[in-house]
Prior knowledge:
alpha+beta, three-stranded antiparallel beta sheet, 2 helices, 3 strands, 15% helix, elongated
Amino acid sequence: GEGLIVFSTLVQPAHFDAHGVHWWYIGARNGHVSIHSRQSLPLCCKRAGMALASFNDNLHVACRRLPDFAQHLGQGPS
């Protein structure tokens, strides 16, 4: 089928080593079961046969093929 997966996960900050497991995002009460770097997130999508685009460090979209209804998202500025 065709569609998009829009999801939110915060990727590790550039200075992650300074915080390690004390980074606020991976606190036990936050319920996050995995964390990703800017490099690991696209690799996970690629292994699932999907392409990834990130709007920012927190909002992402993945798909196998850009659906017809979203073709305008794949075009550069006019």
